[in-house]
Amino acid sequence: MTIFTIDETDNITAFANAEQAAAASTTPFDLFTNQQELAELITPWPADRLLAIYNSLPGVKPLKSLKDAKTAASKIWERVEKLGQMVAPEPVAAKPETAPAKAKAAQKATGGAKSAKGAPAKGKSGKKATPAKAAPKAKKAAKAPDAGPREGSKMAQVIEMLHRAKGATISEIMDRMQWQRHTVRGFMAGALKKAGYAVESFKPEGGERSYRLPK
To answer: Would you say 156 and 150 are in contact if contact means Cβ atoms under 8 Å apart?
Structure first.
């Protein structure tokens, strides 16, 4: 599923999946996957911002005004949907071979090896065979968070809330940071994850979606 993000400077970018979107941004962003989600996201935004977003899209004829948020969502989606079609789809995992197929392949390879062994050499080589290179070392585990965010920054404020025993609800973060719900979710999946923080997401029975950082 294609993921679309709108960053703090109103740039819209398409990604093949949420992981790519999170890895590509270090600042908060809003996200949507279809026209309905886009409409819900931009409804509270001022008209001049919606007009600026639309007029900044490639290939559009600049407008002087937009009737309402619903109209803006329809026009913006018409353009960005084409942008999403240019994003490469996620690769499909190859199906594992069945046991009979593996055995047949192994038998074929063995027969080929025997034939090659009995064949006469087609010329001499003056170079000695070199030993195979050692396999590359496995990638290191995910990096630990850096020394810490700048004091007083948005990230520092959110992290302070997440270190509380019960963490922080999405509404508490929205009120404290003056963010939209989509922005909070994008920040958790994007900036914090990329910075190396393992954010825990949970929903208490009868409660609201909350986040916290393990101590």
So the answer is: yes
Task: Spell out the residues 6+ positions from residue 16 whose beta carbon is closer than 8 angstroms to its own.
Answer: 2, 3, 87, 88, 89, 90
Task: Answer whether 186's CB lies under 8 Å from 5's CB.
Answer: yes
Specify the range with the lowest mean pLDDT, choosing from 42-51, 132-141, 143-152, 201-210. 132-141
Mapped onto helix, strand or coil, the DSSP state of residue 191 is helix
Residues 140-185 pLDDT 10s = 444 455 556 677 777 888 888 998 888 999 899 889 888 888 788 8
Q: Is 197 helix (H, G, I), strand (E, B) or coil?
A: coil
Report the sign of the C-alpha dihedral through residues 212, 15, 43, 58, in that order: positive
Model pTM above 0.85: no
Give the DSSP H or E segment for 150: none
